[in-house]
Specification:
Immunoglobulin-like; 42% strand; alpha+beta; 1 helix; 2 domains; 4-stranded antiparallel sheet
């Protein structure tokens, strides 16, 4: 009887430890940031002109995120959103890289458009012709959903910020394009 009790107690302790580990792994995945970002240097632009900018993100090894144009409408796209400091700075012409088509063990017959490794999103920083000379802070966030070969995790947001220095008018800088779009701006 004593051996049976010890065997049952040992089994319960093992199950309890396994359940605790699974809960800890689940919490670690939920709090984990699957994507990191290189810092962005201060961007200089003159009123009425634009300056290119690149945002470099790194998807953790062993994970992927859906591309900006995922293969199915129910998949969550990777997107960059900006909160602008007023009308003196605009982010336009956001260009996402093409996704890589990959198959995964959970459905080897379909291919998904994903990003993994280093991902560079390009845009233009524009100051309208009447932009005021000053330094402005632009807040942004990358919205994404990370997955591995077995599961997808809850969607996440990676906040970031960078400064834009709007200077005085100067010759030799590229003029702002009047049709520069500003998608994904809140």
């Amino acid at each position: 009887m004593k051996k049976t009790f010890l065997a049952v107690l040992g089994c319960c302790l093992a199950l309890s430890a396994a359940a605790t580990r699974a809960q800890q792994d689940d919490l670690a995945a939920k709090s984990r940031s699957f994507v990191s970002m290189d810092p962005v240097s201060t961007v200089a632009v003159t009123p009425g002109h634009s300056t290119p900018i690149a945002f470099t993100f790194h998807v953790a090894s062993g994970y992927h995120v859906n591309s900006h144009t995922p293969a199915a409408p129910e998949l969550i796209p990777t997107e960059v959103h900006f909160s602008l400091p007023g009308s003196d700075v605009v982010i336009g012409r956001i260009r996402y890289p093409a996704g890589e088509l990959k198959s995964f063990p959970f459905d080897p017959t379909s291919r998904l458009s994903v990003y993994s490794g280093t991902v560079v999103v390009k845009a233009l920083v524009v100051s309208p012709p009447n932009g005021s000379a000053d330094t402005y802070t632009v807040h942004g966030e990358l919205k994404y959903q990370a997955c591995d070969n077995n599961a997808c995790y809850p969607p996440k947001k990676l906040p970031f910020q960078f400064n834009v220095k709007v200077g005085t008018r100067a010759r030799g800088t590229r003029k702002a394009r009047p049709n520069a779009q500003s998608p994904h701006i809140h």
